[in-house]
UniProtKB/TrEMBL annotation:
Protein name: GTPase Obg
UniProt cross-references to Gene3D superfamilies, sorted A to Z: GTP1/OBG domain, P-loop containing nucleotide triphosphate hydrolases
Stretches assigned to the Obg domain: 1-159
Binding site for GTP: 166-173, 191-195, 213-216, 284-287, 315-317
HAMAP family: GTPase_Obg
Organism: Paracidovorax wautersii
């Protein structure tokens, strides 16, 4: 299935049904009184986060979504039935914003989250609502209220703890397949990965994290070269970036340091906050470098790249060094999770065991 991470839709909740003007007509009851019922509520439009979905492709081909209107009120004190609601299933991580203003309205961050994105209109009042001591035979009624109508932009940002960043053919897909349950397409040509892949890395019992592989970047991506940098949005929610470097390029004229600097520059152009995220260097394909040359090549790269952060030397193909990498990642991710779970002081007036 083609990966689609952006779509525009129009939604319309159902209008409320109209109220009814009616009077009781029964034999031997001359003054039966009003018995016109209210109209039914229009159907709502809900959005639900479905963990089984990973694209917004369905909304590319089905842009208009309308809930049913409520039934009109009827005589004999009968109220109209409410219109049927509709539920739109969206991937976890979907951001729903106003298509005109760009204002973010809702976010589906957890599997099973349900949000009302358009409310149905209330039903109108029938004439039985207007009966009073001085108005025994009211002929008033009100129409149903209109349901909400919106034009929305849907944007998917995958939820992952760790994101892989690097040039095409740096070995990102091989790495994610080596350490997780993801099975992306792997080939010996650039741009094998055309859409983000998510994988769960299990470190131990009840110890895991989610890793995301995005299509490779090249210099000039900000101007549309290659696949552009539209997929970088999927790294904005990660806690850690792994910059994967190909230490054994096929072409001897290719300089890994120049490629690495180009990636960092594209990151800076796209988003300053993303550029400032914690980033580790992962020097890959060292199995293709003669053993006696590895230490010198790694030292030369780190020196010319002027890197002072964490460096990991691995071979995703043979899985050499991968175990140490994933344990270090888990330790970092776990530390950040615990920092976010720090206890918060609660006003005793709102605590569950506070005295009345």
């Amino acid at each position: 299935m083609k990966f689609v991470d952006e779509a525009f839709i129009d939604i319309a909740a159902g209008d409320g049904g109209n109220g009814c003007v009616s009077f009781r007509h029964e034999k031997y009851k001359e003054f039966g009184g009003p018995n016109g019922g209210d109209g039914g509520r229009g159907g709502h439009v809900f959005a639900v986060a479905d963990p089984n979905l990973n694209t917004l492709v369905d909304f590319r081909y089905s842009r208009r979504h309308e809930a049913k209107r409520g039934e009109h009120g009827m005589g004999s004190d009968m109220f109209g039935a409410a219109g049927d609601d509709i539920t739109l299933k969206m991937p976890v991580g979907t951001i729903i914003s106003d298509a005109e203003t760009g204002e973010v309205l809702y976010e589906l961050l957890n599997p099973g989250d349900v949000i009302t994105i358009a409310k149905g209109g209330d039903g109108g009042f029938g004439n039985m609502r207007f009966k009073s001591a001085i108005n025994r035979a009211p002929r008033q009624k009100t129409p149903g209220w209109p349901g909400e109508r919106k034009s929305l932009k849907l944007e998917l940002k995958v939820l992952a703890d760790v994101g892989l960043l690097g040039m095409p053919n740096a070995g990102k897909s091989t790495l994610i397949s080596a350490v997780s349950n993801a099975r992306p397409k792997i080939a010996d040509y650039p741009f094998t990965t055309l859409h983000p892949n998510l994988g769960v890395v299990r470190v131990g019992p009840e110890q895991s994290f989610v890793i995301a592989d995005i299509p490779g970047l090249i210099e000039g991506a900000s101007e549309g070269a290659g696949l552009g940098h539209q997929f970088l949005r999927h790294l904005q929610r990660t806690r850690l970036l792994l910059h994967v470097i190909d230490m054994a390029p096929f072409d001897d004229s290719v300089d890994p340091v120049a490629q690495a600097k180009a990636i960092v520059e594209e990151l800076r152009k796209y988003d300053a906050e993303l550029h400032a995220k914690p980033r580790w260097l992962v020097l890959n394909k060292l199995d293709m470098v003669p053993e006696q040359e590895r230490a010198a090549r790694v030292k030369d790269f780190v020196k010319r790249f002027k890197w002072k952060g964490p460096v990991f030397e691995i071979s995703a193909l043979t899985r050499e060094g991968c175990e140490a990498l994933i344990h270090a990642i888990y330790k970092h991710v776990r530390a950040e999770q615990q920092a976010l779970m720090a206890p918060v002081e609660i006003d005793p007036r709102f605590a569950g065991d506070a005295p009345e």
